[in-house]
């Protein structure tokens, strides 16, 4: 197998980057080749500069040095540009291409035609997208892979350890700490955190690689019960472990990848979770401490957080167990090796 991607990085603080880089690093440990295109990371076998169509000879020279099908993970996901590149990858390499799209856009007729003509298979990360591709591209094999959270890294901690982590990061020990990890933009309903009042204290960890809304940032910084973290956090699991409630208020399409990894990481730490039914979240099983909210309830976070905080016997970790990276890698390998069929 050969992974080809333009979103392979060392610092994993964005959803598409985390999906692509985690798949690449873990599959490489199982013998896959990794080719980074127009991006930089220290685990790629080769780093190639290529044009928008991926018609460059250097790319196919690099591919020829590895055996097996291609797994293509584009940062742009299922756009026309990605369809063009999928077509060229298939035709010029003369290999089967499996396109993994972490985010989903509506497709125009040319995009659909090129994906069909490429003979590719599509890997979907949510049931919602799986059904979408099966409907829009009925002659293409579509497979759903449940990914991904590292259940060895993101783990529950004791109350004593939680307080120690709060002291380590300068967080209040006597407040209800609400966490969100992602992008600072209105499309994700981040302004809902402006409504929160004491004793709720919001910790907002924003990606360092995406543009931030300066007006919204200024409003959040003016709140005494809001802490913004913008630096890359190599031990991000400790922030989840220090929190009481994780909030995912996204409602608008294409403002998160299909399976919001931050929600899974919070659940793996057995943190209470309040989330909309965005994409794959709609498929999560119910569990004590997990509250799926309607879109119009996003402006009622203070009340909902108070209610969820009182729920005993939190078991959100059970949600995360179905999305273990180890199982996702096994399923993807079976797909590439022909052992896993369309599901």
CATH superfamily (homologous) name of the largest domain:
Glycogen Phosphorylase B
The overall average pLDDT, rounded, is 94
Please name the CATH topology of the largest domain.
Answer: Rossmann fold
Q: Quickly count the domains.
A: 2
Number of helices: 12
Find the structural class using helix and strand composition. alpha/beta
| End-to-end CA span | 21 Å
**What Rg do the Cα atoms give?**
21 Å
Q: What's the CATH first level of the largest domain?
A: Alpha Beta
Number of strands: 13
The low-confidence runs, each spanning 5 or more residues with pLDDT under 50, are: none
Assign a percent range to the helix content: 25-40%
The 3D shape can be described as elongated
Oligomeric state of this protein: single chain
Strand order of the largest sheet: 3-2-1-4-5-6-7
Helix and strand run: EHEEHEHEHEHEHEEHEHEHEEHHH
CATH architecture of the largest domain: 3-Layer(aba) Sandwich
How much strand?
15-25%
